[in-house]
Protein backbone atom coordinates (compact mmCIF):
# COMPACT_ATOMS: atom_id res chain seq x y z
CA UNK A 1 0.00 0.00 0.00
CA UNK A 2 1.59 3.23 -1.08
CA UNK A 3 1.37 5.78 1.68
CA UNK A 4 0.37 9.22 0.51
CA UNK A 5 1.32 12.25 2.53
CA UNK A 6 -0.96 14.77 0.87
CA UNK A 7 -3.29 16.78 3.01
CA UNK A 8 -6.74 17.87 1.97
CA UNK A 9 -8.14 21.39 2.29
CA UNK A 10 -9.56 20.66 5.74
CA UNK A 11 -6.03 19.91 6.96
CA UNK A 12 -6.73 16.20 7.52
CA UNK A 13 -3.81 13.90 6.78
CA UNK A 14 -4.37 10.63 4.90
CA UNK A 15 -3.01 7.92 7.17
CA UNK A 16 -3.67 4.28 7.92
CA UNK A 17 -6.68 3.77 10.21
CA UNK A 18 -6.13 2.06 13.57
CA UNK A 19 -9.05 -0.39 14.02
CA UNK A 20 -9.30 -3.84 12.47
CA UNK A 21 -12.61 -5.24 11.34
CA UNK A 22 -14.11 -8.15 13.31
CA UNK A 23 -12.13 -11.41 12.99
CA UNK A 24 -15.39 -13.18 12.02
CA UNK A 25 -15.18 -11.28 8.73
CA UNK A 26 -12.67 -13.92 7.59
CA UNK A 27 -15.43 -16.56 7.80
CA UNK A 28 -17.87 -14.23 6.04
CA UNK A 29 -15.46 -13.53 3.17
CA UNK A 30 -14.53 -17.22 2.94
CA UNK A 31 -18.21 -18.21 2.72
CA UNK A 32 -18.81 -15.55 0.04
CA UNK A 33 -15.92 -16.89 -2.02
CA UNK A 34 -17.10 -20.49 -1.61
CA UNK A 35 -20.58 -19.49 -2.80
CA UNK A 36 -18.92 -18.12 -5.93
CA UNK A 37 -16.35 -20.86 -6.65
CA UNK A 38 -17.97 -24.12 -5.43
CA UNK A 39 -21.08 -24.08 -7.69
CA UNK A 40 -18.89 -23.45 -10.72
CA UNK A 41 -16.60 -26.39 -9.84
CA UNK A 42 -19.57 -28.68 -9.24
CA UNK A 43 -21.31 -27.62 -12.47
CA UNK A 44 -18.18 -28.27 -14.54
CA UNK A 45 -17.57 -31.67 -12.90
CA UNK A 46 -21.17 -32.83 -13.32
CA UNK A 47 -21.32 -31.61 -16.90
CA UNK A 48 -18.05 -33.42 -17.69
CA UNK A 49 -19.58 -36.68 -16.44
CA UNK A 50 -22.73 -36.35 -18.55
CA UNK A 51 -21.26 -34.92 -21.78
CA UNK A 52 -18.40 -37.23 -22.81
CA UNK A 53 -17.57 -35.46 -26.12
CA UNK A 54 -16.84 -32.23 -24.24
CA UNK A 55 -15.17 -33.93 -21.26
CA UNK A 56 -11.62 -32.81 -22.10
CA UNK A 57 -12.59 -29.12 -22.36
CA UNK A 58 -14.84 -29.27 -19.32
CA UNK A 59 -12.13 -30.90 -17.21
CA UNK A 60 -9.60 -28.36 -18.49
CA UNK A 61 -12.00 -25.58 -17.47
CA UNK A 62 -12.49 -27.30 -14.11
CA UNK A 63 -8.71 -27.35 -13.59
CA UNK A 64 -8.38 -23.66 -14.48
CA UNK A 65 -11.22 -22.68 -12.14
CA UNK A 66 -9.70 -24.83 -9.37
CA UNK A 67 -6.21 -23.35 -9.84
CA UNK A 68 -7.64 -19.83 -9.55
CA UNK A 69 -10.55 -20.52 -7.20
CA UNK A 70 -8.87 -22.53 -4.45
CA UNK A 71 -6.17 -19.92 -3.72
CA UNK A 72 -8.86 -17.24 -3.92
CA UNK A 73 -10.92 -19.04 -1.25
CA UNK A 74 -7.89 -19.69 0.96
CA UNK A 75 -5.89 -16.47 0.59
CA UNK A 76 -8.30 -13.61 -0.15
CA UNK A 77 -10.20 -13.60 3.18
CA UNK A 78 -6.99 -13.63 5.23
CA UNK A 79 -5.45 -10.89 3.07
CA UNK A 80 -8.55 -8.70 3.29
CA UNK A 81 -8.57 -9.06 7.07
CA UNK A 82 -4.97 -7.85 7.21
CA UNK A 83 -5.71 -4.82 5.00
CA UNK A 84 -9.21 -3.70 6.07
CA UNK A 85 -9.06 -1.04 8.76
CA UNK A 86 -11.23 1.80 9.95
CA UNK A 87 -11.21 4.66 12.39
CA UNK A 88 -13.36 7.63 13.29
CA UNK A 89 -12.31 10.83 14.97
CA UNK A 90 -14.26 13.97 15.74
CA UNK A 91 -13.05 15.33 12.39
CA UNK A 92 -13.17 12.42 9.93
CA UNK A 93 -13.77 8.79 9.02
CA UNK A 94 -10.71 6.86 7.82
CA UNK A 95 -10.86 3.58 5.88
CA UNK A 96 -8.42 1.17 4.25
CA UNK A 97 -9.71 -1.67 2.12
CA UNK A 98 -9.01 -4.01 -0.76
CA UNK A 99 -6.82 -7.00 -1.32
CA UNK A 100 -5.39 -6.80 -4.84
CA UNK A 101 -6.03 -3.10 -5.27
CA UNK A 102 -5.78 -1.36 -1.92
CA UNK A 103 -7.29 2.01 -1.11
CA UNK A 104 -7.03 4.43 1.80
CA UNK A 105 -9.77 7.05 2.12
CA UNK A 106 -10.76 9.84 4.43
CA UNK A 107 -14.11 11.60 4.73
CA UNK A 108 -14.26 14.81 6.76
CA UNK A 109 -17.32 14.95 9.02
CA UNK A 110 -18.43 18.15 7.29
CA UNK A 111 -18.77 16.22 3.98
CA UNK A 112 -20.84 13.30 5.30
CA UNK A 113 -24.39 13.24 3.97
CA UNK A 114 -25.77 9.89 5.17
CA UNK A 115 -24.71 6.93 7.30
CA UNK A 116 -26.28 3.53 6.64
CA UNK A 117 -26.01 0.01 8.01
CA UNK A 118 -26.29 -3.08 5.81
CA UNK A 119 -26.70 -6.67 7.06
CA UNK A 120 -27.11 -9.25 4.32
CA UNK A 121 -28.05 -12.87 5.08
CA UNK A 122 -24.44 -14.06 5.33
CA UNK A 123 -23.50 -11.09 7.48
CA UNK A 124 -26.41 -11.89 9.80
CA UNK A 125 -25.17 -15.48 10.03
CA UNK A 126 -21.77 -14.19 11.20
CA UNK A 127 -23.31 -11.40 13.37
CA UNK A 128 -21.65 -8.75 11.21
CA UNK A 129 -22.72 -5.48 9.60
CA UNK A 130 -21.35 -3.00 7.11
CA UNK A 131 -21.51 0.74 7.60
CA UNK A 132 -21.72 2.94 4.51
CA UNK A 133 -20.76 6.60 4.81
CA UNK A 134 -22.03 8.64 1.86
CA UNK A 135 -20.27 11.89 1.13
CA UNK A 136 -20.36 14.63 -1.46
CA UNK A 137 -17.38 12.98 -3.15
CA UNK A 138 -17.16 11.78 -6.74
CA UNK A 139 -15.20 8.78 -5.41
CA UNK A 140 -18.39 7.39 -3.92
CA UNK A 141 -19.25 6.23 -0.42
CA UNK A 142 -16.86 4.78 2.14
CA UNK A 143 -17.81 1.31 3.32
CA UNK A 144 -16.59 -0.33 6.48
CA UNK A 145 -17.41 -4.01 5.98
CA UNK A 146 -17.08 -6.73 8.59
CA UNK A 147 -17.96 -4.90 11.79
CA UNK A 148 -19.60 -6.60 14.74
CA UNK A 149 -23.31 -5.73 14.53
CA UNK A 150 -23.25 -3.95 17.91
CA UNK A 151 -20.09 -2.00 17.01
CA UNK A 152 -21.72 -1.00 13.71
CA UNK A 153 -24.87 0.23 15.47
CA UNK A 154 -22.79 2.23 17.94
CA UNK A 155 -20.67 3.65 15.11
CA UNK A 156 -23.76 4.79 13.20
CA UNK A 157 -25.10 6.54 16.31
CA UNK A 158 -21.73 8.19 16.95
CA UNK A 159 -21.30 9.32 13.33
CA UNK A 160 -24.84 10.64 13.15
CA UNK A 161 -24.39 12.67 16.33
CA UNK A 162 -20.97 13.96 15.24
CA UNK A 163 -22.04 14.94 11.74
CA UNK A 164 -25.13 16.75 13.09
CA UNK A 165 -22.91 18.73 15.45
CA UNK A 166 -20.35 19.52 12.73
CA UNK A 167 -20.89 22.77 10.84
CA UNK A 168 -20.91 22.58 7.04
CA UNK A 169 -23.30 21.83 4.24
CA UNK A 170 -21.92 18.38 3.28
CA UNK A 171 -21.15 19.48 -0.28
Overall pLDDT confidence = 89
First-last Cα distance: 29 Å
Q: Write the element-wise H/E pattern from the N-terminal end onward.
A: EHHEEEEHEEH
The major β-sheet equals: 4 strands, antiparallel
Question: Beta-strand level of the residues, as a percent range?
Answer: 15-25%
Main structural class: alpha+beta
The residue ranges in which pLDDT falls below 50 over 5 or more consecutive positions are 1-9
Bin the helical content. Answer: 40-55%
Gyration radius, in Å = 20 Å
Shape: elongated
What does this structure look like?
The protein has helices at residues 25-50, 55-83, 121-125, 149-165; strands at residues 19-20, 85-88, 92-97, 103-108, 112-118, 128-135, 142-148. With 171 residues, the protein is of the alpha+beta class. The chain has a 4-stranded antiparallel β-sheet. A 3-stranded antiparallel β-sheet has the order 5-6-7. A hairpin with a 3-residue loop joins β2 (85-88) and β3 (92-97). It starts with 18 loop residues before the first strand and ends in a 6-residue tail after the last helix. Mean pLDDT is 89; it is low at 1-9.
Amino acid sequence: MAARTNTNPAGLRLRPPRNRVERRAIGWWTTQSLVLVLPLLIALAVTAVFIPPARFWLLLSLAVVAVIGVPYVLVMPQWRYRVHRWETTEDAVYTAEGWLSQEWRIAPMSRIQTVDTVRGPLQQLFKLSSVTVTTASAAGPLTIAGLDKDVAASLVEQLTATMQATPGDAT
